[in-house]
Write a structure and sequence with these properties.
The structure holds 2 protein chains of 2 kinds. By secondary structure, chain A is α/β, with parallel strands linked by helices. Helices cover 35% and strands 20% of the residues of chain A. In chain A, strand 10, helix 8 and strand 11 form a beta-alpha-beta unit. In chain A, helix 1 packs parallel to helix 7 and helix 9 packs across helix 10. By secondary structure, chain B is of the alpha/beta class. Helices cover 49% and strands 7% of the residues of chain B. Chain B is built from 19 helices and 7 strands. Chain B has a 5-stranded parallel β-sheet with strand order 1-2-3-7-6, sandwiched between helices. In chain B, helix 6 runs antiparallel to helix 16, helix 6 packs across helix 17 and helix 9 packs parallel to helix 17. Classes of the chains: A alpha/beta, B alpha/beta. The interface between A and B is large, with 49 and 45 residues.
């Protein structure tokens, strides 16, 4: 066991990947000499060379499009998109090309491309630096989307993403880059597309992922002080979603609250609420409740605390669920 | 910026190979592409960039820079009247061709034209959802396709039926996409001919990435067979941002890719002038890559120019942009009507530049082919068309289960769940169908 930040854990995971798989390489803006704007790739260029850690022109469509071409030649590119709001110039390549190449070729071709995207708010940044666009990609068949919430997952899931034969978007919760945790470099936590129950409880299920996992755990602790037992599920994978894990929990607890930073409308929470309503209708004591961002572009940093789900908003949602 | 000025500014490529060093030393008047073919001198002086260079041992063959201006300033070896002209750089490529090769060029063009006629008819008869005619562009496609080696890889748009033929595809496979039974339809790895791409210009980036992969393979293992990639796109697609980004990447990483633009002058109903106010080939200088403008209806010139470009790329000198000036004689697809957006006179003018006619004239004049050859060819082409028709009509639809199976390369629970639901749903109808047929059978 080693203790490290999530950023360092991803860095170590990338280092292990580059060392083990000669076909893998990193590409993106400022990832070489600078080590990435968040220093996630720090030291890797020095260790593996510019050939394996490639500073690219400032062109997101170019990064993803050429990565797809490299994958067709047998390589495993790991792309970095510098910030969530800058993925949209590559949206076309990701959704119309990368996601579809396997199905368009009737299964003959595959595109094992990983796209790393630092995402989410809470860092006091400016426009386009705090978005949560995961639902836009989750809606696209052919992509897989995962997001770690702790250092151990961060270390393992990036390596598992590179090994996956499908394109994987690896959303990194940027406000948790400095969150420290224990990393077991010997034993993998298993299937990256399975959810983890990170706190057991009996009266309500709180489903979260990425940056909101620590918030949910704190909310569950606060709820316990009020006498409520709340189970917290870290989804880990947004596409596919481990509905079986959520179903099992809700059948036990009878209540479901889903929280994410992205706007609630059309979001992942709605998908989970709907599916669980179908699966667990007779177990539910209350309607599934969503907590998320408002229907507005991510607001300016000076008011983002009102936009981001916090402990109190999760508790308010739990209170509503308990009131039924 | 002139080449000399560029060299003074320390362009990295100026130090990298003969491309710029040769160019900087030569005046435009020395351009081997033009010096013997009577093309415009004034265009050269306007360009501000120089051309030159002869093939040198261990270096790139004769180098052109991208400054051609004006339609009379492109490489042409076989003119509209079937007359062959000499060009210092490019003629050697066709001097190597045998009479069989020349007849093969004609045969391929005639086959594609006949195939196109059949596919159009199939669409009109309701057997295809859509068809994308290629009539008029046969020389650009057969010439460039024939220039490729087996190990080279082509990334087409959705109109490269002629290139497909040169890559050994069964042309009937192209129609799977247009009949709605597949979004692909052939084995890209077996043919080194990638799937058609309907999102304009997206494939130019894939081509560059693939080419960068070739460079990596070579760096890792010098025994790798040198290869290059051809990225096809049209004048309409040239306005898409991906074309720009692909050229930036290709230039920055010296990717062995040939950008082959078929300027057919119309992006559905929008004329070329709306895409670009200058010849597209001029854009090459912005990326510091060689650009060559070629008469796209001259199969010999296209072949030679593409050979040159592929050698340049394969030999590690980086990308090349070719602009093949040609004309889409028919509609963009069977869904539009050219009479609504362009003049008949223009179409008639381009018909005089027909790529098949000029090669036929040449073959006959040189006594390389006679009536018997052309009659046999017509018969063979009809046979091909009949094969395509039979194969198309035999395509009786896809199985959606196969579509479930190919969304992801690895198992995916949502896909599995929805497939299970679908099977169950289908099974519920199977009972009803059985009952219905039994009832009908009883009534009969």
């Amino acid at each position: 066991m080693k203790t490290m930040t999530m950023a360092k854990a991803i860095n170590e995971g990338l280092r292990a990947t580059l060392a083990n798989d000669p076909k893998s390489f990193l590409m993106g803006e400022d990832i070489g000499a600078l080590g990435g704007v968040y220093r996630v790739t720090e030291g890797l260029k020095k260790e593996f060379g510019a050939h394996r850690v490639m500073d690219t022109p400032l062109a997101e469509s170019g990064i993803v499009g050429t990565a797809l071409g490299m994958a067709l030649r047998g390589y495993r590119p790991i792309c970095e998109i510098q910030f969530d709001g800058f993925v949209f110039p590559a949206f076309n390549q990701i959704t119309t090309q990368l996601a579809k190449i396997h199905t368009r070729s009737d299964g003959q071709l595959s595109a094992p491309v990983v796209i790393r995207i630092p995402y989410g708010g809470g860092i006091g940044s400016i426009e386009h630096h705090s978005e949560s666009p995961e639902a836009l990609f989750a809606h696209t068949a052919g992509l897989r989307i995962i997001t770690p919430s702790n250092a151990n997952d961060a270390y393992w899931m990036i390596q598992q993403a590179v090994q996956c034969q499908d394109p994987v978007i690896y959303f990194e919760p940027k406000r948790r880059y400095w969150l420290k945790g224990e990393v077991d470099t010997e034993n993998s936590p298993g299937d990256p597309f399975k959810a983890h129950v990170v706190r057991e409880g009996s009266e309500a299920t709180l489903v979260v992922y990425g940056p909101l996992v620590p918030v949910a755990l704190a909310a569950a602790t606060a709820a316990a002080e009020d006498g409520h037992s709340v189970e917290v599920i870290d989804l880990r994978s947004i596409s596919p979603i481990d509905f079986d894990a959520v179903e099992a929990s809700v059948n036990k607890t009878g209540r479901l609250v889903v929280a994410h930073e992205a706007p609630t409308f059309g979001g992942i929470g709605g998908e989970i609420a709907s599916r669980i309503s179908e699966r667990c209708f007779y177990s539910l004591e209350a309607p599934a409740i969503r907590v998320g961002g408002f229907h507005m572009p991510y607001p300016v940093a000076s008011v983002e605390e009102h936009y981001l789900p916090d402990i109190d908003r999760m508790l308010e949602a739990l209170d509503r669920a308990f009131a039924f | 910026m002139g080449a000399a000025q560029q060299a003074a500014n320390g362009s990295s490529r100026a130090d990298a190979g003969p491309a710029t060093s040769a160019g900087s030393a030569a005046s435009g008047a020395d351009s081997p592409a033009r010096s013997q073919s009577g093309r415009s001198e004034s265009a050269r002086s306007q360009s501000g960039r120089s051309q030159a260079g002869r093939p040198q041992s261990g270096e790139s063959p004769g180098v052109l820079r991208s400054n051609t201006v004006g339609s009379d300033d492109s490489v042409q070896l076989l003119d509209e009247h079937g007359m062959l002209h000499h060009d210092g750089v490019f003629s050697p490529y066709i001097d190597k061709l045998s009479p069989d090769d020349l007849r093969g060029f004609y045969r391929d063009m005639a086959f594609v034209r006949r195939f196109d006629t059949e596919a159009t008819a199939l669409q009109r008869q309701g057997e295809l959802a859509l068809w994308v005619p290629v009539v008029g562009q046969e020389a650009a496609q057969i010439g460039s396709g024939r220039a490729m080696n087996k190990a080279d890889y082509a990334f087409p748009t959705y109109r490269e039926h002629g290139v497909a033929l040169t890559r050994g595809l069964d042309l009937a496979d192209l129609l799977k996409l247009f009949r709605g039974v597949s979004n692909g339809g052939w084995d890209p790895r077996g043919t080194n001919f990638h799937l058609y791409t309907l999102v304009l210009a997206a494939q130019t980036l894939h081509a560059v990435g693939y080419a960068m992969g070739i460079s990596r393979d070579l760096a890792a293992d010098p025994a790798t067979e040198p290869a290059a990639v051809v990225a096809y796109f049209g004048d309409g697609a040239s306005s898409e941002g991906d074309v720009h980004e692909s050229m930036v990447f290709a230039s920055s990483y010296d990717a062995p890719v040939v950008f082959f633009c078929q300027n057919n002058h119309w992006a559905i109903s929008v004329p070329f002038e709306v895409q670009s106010r200058i010849p597209l080939v001029n854009r090459a200088s912005g990326y510091d890559i060689p650009g060559i403008r070629v008469d796209g209806n001259d199969v010999l010139a296209v072949y030679a120019v593409t050979q040159w470009a592929l050698e340049h790329a394969r030999n590690g000198f980086g990308p090349v942009l070719i602009e093949a000036s040609t004309y889409r004689v028919g509609a963009h697809t069977t869904a539009d009507d050219p009479t609504k957006y362009r003049l008949n006179a223009e179409e008639e003018l381009w018909k005089t530049k027909d790529p098949l006619q000029r090669l036929e004239t040449y073959l006959r004049a040189e006594k390389l082919a006679d009536d018997g050859f052309f009659e046999q060819l017509k018969s063979d082409a009809d046979e091909l068309a009949a094969h395509v028709r039979r194969a198309t009509l035999a395509l009786d639809g896809a199985d959606i289960r196969q579509k479930f199976a190919s969304v992801y390369a690895q198992a995916h629970p949502l896909v599995a769940e929805e497939l299970a639901w679908f099977e169950n749903y289908e099974a519920s109808f199977a009972d009803a169908h059985t009952q219905t047929s039994e009832t009908q059978g009883g009534a009969a």
